[in-house]
Every structure is written in C-alpha cells, then in structure tokens.
Amino acid sequence: MDQRKTEPDSYHRNGIAQVVLYGEFTATANRKVRYAVSLTEIDLTVQKITSTPAGRSKVVFNLRDCVGCRTFKGEDNTDVGAYFSAYFYPFKRRWMSSGVARQRVEQCFRVALAQDSHANLEEAQRWARAINEGSIRQLPQRDGVLYSEVRRPCRVMLLLNPHSGKGQALSLFTGHVQRMLTEAGVPHTLVITERQNHARELVREVDLSQWDAMVIISGDGLLFEVVNGLMEREDWEAAIQTPLGILPGGSGNALAASIHHYSGSQPVSCEELLVSCGFMLCKGLVSRMDLVSVHTASNQRLFSFLSLAWGFVADVDIESEKYRHVGAARFTVGTLVRLASLRVYQGRLAYLPVEEPPSRPPAQVSPPPPASAFCSSLLCRPSGASPGQNTFHNSCNSNNAAKAKRGDGTAPAPRGPPDSLLAPLEQPVPGDWTVVEEEDFVLMLAMYQSHLAEDLLAAPGAALEDGVIHLFYVKAGISRTALLRLFLAMEKGAHLASSCPYLVHVKVRALRLEPFSPKGVITVDGESVEYGPIQAQVHGGLARLISG
Ligand SMILES: Nc1ncnc2c1ncn2[C@@H]1O[C@H](COP(=O)(O)OP(=O)(O)OP(=O)(O)O)[C@@H](O)[C@H]1O
C-alpha cells in the first residue's frame, strides 16, 4: 500500500517554491514501480523510487505546460485504487529533426493509500484539484502583453469547415483537439458547417449568453464569416467581445501562425501548429485584436482581422484554390505559376500614415469590461449604436430558425463603430493622407497580423492589438527573380531587410485603393470581395482573441 508523507520535506530546485503536496504512488501499468511525486506552485516533480541512486532520475514538469488533470477509478471493480492523470504539452525536441514543438506527455498515477476506494478517490481528486489550480495560476506570460482569461468552465462553440484545407479538418479535430479539450475539461459543442455563410448566419442569430467562446477549426475564411456575423448583429458591440479562437484546419492558417509567432515560440506548421493553438485554447488567455473596417464601392462594409490584398498576392490566393489538394504548398505552386505570367496592376493608392506610436499601451482585458470600454481609442469612437458535452451536431436549431426568420438569406449591413478617418469613396481622400506617386504596381498588401500563411512572415512587426496596418506595395519594374527572392526571404520575415528598391513598407491607420482596370481580384482575409475602389481603417482592439 502506498504511503503518503504528510510533511513535505523538499523545496523546489531553485529553493523558492515550497512543496504543496507530496505523495508516493505506483505506476498504472506496473504496481511494482513507485514514484515520489511532489507538487509546488510552479511544477510537478516525478522521481522513480529505486534502491540504486542511478535509477532515481527526476523529471520536472512546469505547470505552465499543463492543460489539466483528471481523476478516474480503475476499470477493475476489485481495484480499490484511484487514479489521476496530468496532461502536459511541453516544448520538446522533435524526433529526427531540429527545433522544438509542444508534445503531449501524460503522467498517470495510482493512489492506494487505504483499502477504502472512496478515500483513495478523494485523495486523487485532491491532487487533481491542486494541479488544475496550479496550472491555471501558471499562465504563459509575455513581456508587455496582458491578458484576461475566458470564463471557466468555458463553454465553447467549435465551428468546423469540413472542406477547409485538404478536407481533413474533422480528422484533425478528432485526432488532436477533442482529446486536448477533454483533458482540459473544456465543454464544447461541435458544429460542422454545411455551406458557405452557414457560420455567419448562425452567429448572427445565436444566443450568445450560452457561449463563452467561439472557436473555428478551419482556415481564416471561416473566422471571417464569424467576425462579420457578429458585427451584423444589433448587439454587435457586446457580441464582438465574445472571445474568438482559431485552430488551424485550412491551407493558409495565417492567423493561427500569427498567434503562435506572437507567443514567441519557434516556427511550426501542420499538426504541430494545431497542437500549439489547441494548447492556447485550453489555457484560455484572451487578448484584444484589431479589426479593420473595409468599404467597397457598392457601400458594403466588412470587418477584417488579417489582410487586404490586390495584385500578385490576391491573384495567387484565388488562383491557387485549384491546388487545394496539396495543402499549404498551394501558395508556393500558385506563386510560381503567377510569376511565370507576372503582370502590372494599375491603380491609385493613398493612405493615412501612422504619425506616432499608438497612445494606448497594450491593455489588460480583464474582467470583460462594459461594452463601450473597448471603443476608447482615437480610432474607435462609440457611435451610440445599441450596443462540454463533446456533442456532434451537423446542423443547429438556432441556425435553422435564423434562416427561416430572414427568408432571403441576404446579409444585413454590418454595424460597428464609425470610420472617422475615411471620406466617402466618391470624394478625394482627406488632406493629411499621402497619395502614392506611382500608379503601376505588382502588388498591394495590407497586413494587420504577422503571417500571410503558415510559412510567410509578411509583417514581422505586427501585433494583435497595436492599431497599425502594415501596408506593403511592390512597384512595377521588379524582375521575376527579385520578386521570387522577396517571397523566399518572407519565409523568415527577412524581405524588409533585403533593401529591395521596389518594395515599400509603411505603417498606416487607413488606406484607399482605386484600381483602374475594370476587372480583377481583391481579397479580404483571403476571401474574394467586390472588385473596385475600396478603403479601410483600423479599429484598435475591437475584437477579442484567445491567444497566448
Ligand atoms: N461547409 C462548407 N462548405 C463550403 N464552403 C464552406 C463551408 N464552410 C465554410 N465555407 C467557406 O469555405 C471557404 C474557405 O474556408 P477556409 O478559409 O476556412 O478554408 P481554407 O480556404 O482551406 O483555408 P485558408 O483560408 O487558410 O486557405 C470560406 O469562404 C468559407 O466561408
């Protein structure tokens, strides 16, 4: 029978953290193998108990890497022992390759202090509670960034586009995400979208009091739907404060790659990026995110969290749809194809430059403030507008109700804060704007997050909430080789340091583009939008995003 020492007799290795729990337990698979387990405020230390000092290797798990701890009884009714499992996702070296990525480590112990199974379960629960509480206290930290936390337990609506990326979003969910959410005790409802704009219509009508977070597992296009659905609600001001989350299941996964980058972690892709974002979701840290309000010629207003593109990048994004089966490589293939038929795009570009660093420092988002508190920056003046059961659903009642109510399926005009920096599209830009001299371009790309795709660090200086649009344009005259070199350098975010005379980067608050050709492609967050004159302005910290 296991013995529990009541007097902790050790301290954390650096002599600071005091042991809060100590116990000796057996392994689950082999009851002859015993471990000394000690819990401090910052870590869990596991040491095998052996007669030979050489066998007493010690493993220390930081609670910051822990998503949760669960208890359970043995499958065998005669087993009086109880069990607790702690789930860690520490950065570990990859097998057979360089670099590190978060990898799952489960630590499971059998508690058998007494012949009373109930007492053993209580003891296991005591450990699980302490580990869970400790892991919640040990949240990831980043210099200069302050977060709030999602409400716990966090009821998550998980929207999944089964066709995104290579069409594997559902298997990515069942293979990686579902287990993590269960380990973290996050109740979630999975909604599999049935068609384009399903998610948009659903979030436009859903009772948001039922949800603590809306998370998509897809590419950026599904989040674009969710953001715009929320902004089309009468209560947009409160609705857009719903914490949003992103789990990469698409081919570009730009926002997922950006939040991973902001966390200061080494670049990862594919499933490793999914695990990283899943970990952030389980930790539930929320920060603010800028949204950019975009106006098209027909007076349509959209809200964007990622990018606005015209020319080479927009064409590649849309044309590479046909290479979707190759996953993220679709952009590489698309880039090479478009390079072969490189063309010049004519138009007029104007912008309002950032004159000084944003006056508002990154702010603490906790606890959820009154709705209007999010619109306090210069850029965002309140308009006075009104403000886990792991269940699978192929459709949603509230969505059907929404469709029936609206009938025609057309999207209502998005509401939102006024765009005080923009003049009507038919009027000249305001006097303090800069009008770009050149009218011949190869591309125009406005970015408000760091990544254009998993492997394209287009705006290394971007942050989630800085009220800045990074405007890039490449002037006509650049050779194919030089443009290819720029994109290759972008993989490491080194394109700006390449001193390419054709590439211009300027930080702006607002911009206007007037293409001259009658036909073409403009994308917002990777989605094709109405082609023609278009303008946009940033609204600092309008939305909230689970990041870490
Ligand atoms: N069930 C569905 N059937 C068809 N289209 C859908 C469905 N759900 C969402 N969509 C739409 O599919 C488009 C692509 O979705 P999404 O961006 O999420 O994936 P992706 O294009 O593979 O990813 P990425 O944007 O990272 O390249 C979006 O326009 C989205 O609105």
Automatic annotation (TrEMBL):
InterPro entries: ATP-NAD_kinase_N, Diacylglycerol_kinase_cat_dom, Lipid_Phosphate_FormReg, NAD/diacylglycerol_kinase_sf. GO terms for cellular component: cytoplasm; endomembrane system; membrane. Coiled coil: none annotated. The keyword Nucleotide-binding applies. Its EC number is 2.7.1.91. Residues 389-420 are annotated as: Disordered. One of its GO terms (molecular function) is ATP binding. Residues 151-298 form the DAGKc domain. It is found in: Endomembrane system. GO terms for biological process: cellular response to growth factor stimulus; negative regulation of apoptotic process; sphingosine biosynthetic process. Keywords: ATP-binding, Kinase, Membrane, Nucleotide-binding, Transferase. It comes from the Eukaryota. This is sphingosine kinase. The lineage of its organism: Eukaryota, Metazoa, Chordata, Craniata, Vertebrata.
